Amino acid sequence: MSNAAAEPTREEVDSMQGPAVVEFGASWCPHCIRVQPAIAEAMARHPDVRHLKIEDGKGRRLGRSFHVKLWPTLIFMNNGDEVTRLVRPTELEPIIDALDEID
Question: What are phi and psi of 68, to 5 degrees?
Answer without folding.
Answer: -70, 130
